[in-house]
Design a protein that fits this description.
single chain; alpha+beta; 13-stranded mixed beta sheet; two-stranded antiparallel ribbon; about 15% helix; about 30% strand; globular
Length: about 300
Amino acid sequence: MATTDACSSAMSLIPRVRLVSVTGAKHREMGILRSSFVFFALGLLLTLSSASESEVDDETPFTYIEGTGKGPKEWGQIDPHWQACGMGKLQSPIDLLNERVQVFPNLGKLKRDYKPAPAVVKNRGHDITVTWKGDAGKININGTYYNLLQCHWHSPSEHTFNGSRYDLELHMVHLNSHEEIAVIGIVYKYGRPDPFLTKLLEHITVVGKEDTDLGVINPGIIKFGSRKYFRYIGSLTVPPCTEGVVWTIVRKVRTVSRKQVEALREAVHDGYEANARPTQQLDGRAVWLYTPGDNGGAA
């Protein structure tokens, strides 16, 4: 469970902490699925910290390099507040395998309502983060609104498609009025430059630990490229690996240039150029795919 010490040891990405049950997390995700997948929520009585628990800001306690005593396999042993990293059953990222996916068109179209707002960019050591300081809009998931807070990148991608890992992954982090998190993940392969990174590139190459003002940034320039998406309940992918996150992974793999990925890798601190957590066990979780107009099949 979250404590005052846990919050003080991590960046205040999310300002308050709220405790929810796994069942509660599932019900946020499954409002319209209850009649078909009621079994998924039954019997899950484990209490967990809500996704409002923040990510760490100082990268020094952990690394992505195994064999150092601070790699991903050891994250859960580094700090008592990070036990979910090693013992959690709703961990992210995951491998999105065709045979595990259940197509469910009634999930509905992902409703986005983003708008321009002042933003800053910061080098957190283990990643580059853009944070909106004003109202940058929201998404609607099953009738619940989640406000856009920030986005950051992982290279290579953290989520994999049928075992294939791509070159980059963008996470768009959202928070609702109950202090619960929803993250949209967009995966990229090498190809044409990404328009959003093109706009930010000159700032990324010189950004430091302090916030650098970007002026007004429109998150609407972040393109999804498809209405198809995966949905599952997972966790933060960095310590404290807090569970209860509603994940939406865009099905289409978009493109990014090598220069853009290299800029992100060169900007972070030494040892964090590859900042992707290995995929985690699914542990019986359901993974849904929204495909407009499709009533069956797989990804």
